[in-house]
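pasting for ref
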Amino acid sequence: MRTHTGEKPYKCEKCDYFCTLESSLDRHIEKHSGEKPYMCGECGYRTARKSHLSKHVRTHTGEKPYKCDLCDYSSAQKKYLDKHVAKHTGEKPYKCEDCGYRTAISANLSRHMRIHTGEKPFKCDLCDYSAAQKVALDQHKVKHTGEKPYMCGECGYRTADRANLSRHMRTHTGLRPYKCDLCDYSAARKFNLDKHVAKHTGEKHYVCGECGYRTVKKSALSVHMRTHTGEKPYKCDQCDYSTARKATFDQHVEKHTGEKPYMCGECGYRTARKSHLSKHVRTHTGEKPYKCDQCDYSSTKKKYLDKHVDKHTGEKPYKCEDCRYRTAISTNLSRHMRIHTGEKPYKCDLCDYSAAQKVALDKHVAKHTGEKPYMCGECGYRTADRANLSRHMRTHTGEKPYKCDQCNYSAAQKSDLYKHFAKHTGEKPYMCGECGYRTADRAKLSRHMRTHTGEKPYKCDLCDYSAAQKSDLYKHAAKHTNEKPYMCGECGYRTAEKATLSVHMNTHIAGKTLQV
């Protein structure tokens, strides 16, 4: 009845904590004493509760004592079995009145409601941090203690989070315990299964009360809500940087340490992140593991597959209020808006350069370091930008992966395909707010805007020259180096400018015409 009355009769004598259950009070009191008498003999993990140690030991033994009566599913913890059994009955009695979300588990509904209320009941004892979920608080506390009690017996990987260790172990075992009831798909992580199931059902039960945005992922909604609230909960301990996304925060922290432990055996490229190395290796192998269910398209990165899938649905729910631009992807709209606002949130730590897109900042930073980690195995071409290498490789393979849906045109670069599309549609979604100039090409609008602002972002390293267009800087730089990379195959004439070579080539064409 206390769940209805809100009564919390159990009170801590050392702080203002109240709770409805005596067992919850006992667990809370352990925090004050700090005692952890139960220790794991495998990895040294310590805990205040014997039951916690029993659960922990199963991460080493692989034991799954909780078994389903209706199928061969088993789990290490009872709560996971309870969730699984709900799938057999199909019952979801717990419903959110704000957005229609339903679940088989009351605790899930309680957690879900915090998305709407903004409540963060889990508070850190050592700082002013608070979280909507206990797991987030547990992860935060590790920043204070530095403790990583969970260790992999295979490779020595350590983590502060038991769930992380369980997920990590699947990289060794290959286990994919999350299985789709509608096809033979299986996944190592539950959220991957949830995303997959949404393809069958089309359900997007997480909805934003501000703008109507819908998603299949609770975490995606939480991140989306920050675009409205401006909340940036991930704060750097070493500087004043903060961000709305954990992935962005992790990348930032790597800048302080400078460590790059993961190295490519092909070209010597180094990175701070294992996932980045995996993606990089695909530039050498040509592997494209992300495959479209509706056609034969495949890609090296999941984000490219997600963009591709949107083409099948044709949906473009994200619209710019300043011009007619529409997109299927919210991050595309965020980037597009910077054309209108002039915002440049990505700032260089070594000079006063700033950029509207992270990819532009990454290219700029390479000028300071001189690093060109991406190398072509065919001709030795090196570049600071992974995307440049991918594009370069197509000059060897002749691959043209970007195909037009309306004719047989194909292109080696996505930007060329977009320009081609405009010929079919006549659409020019990019508009200048100053003079009404319209174009089908976003890069052209950016260049055009500089005629109004007078901005010259391309600066020469050897003198004080600056230019509004990158091509003009290249022409200028050739004066310092005397480099003439463009050569005529007919007579050996060399020039620093591609356009000059084109004009020169016409002299040969005209001469041949006269001879005929």
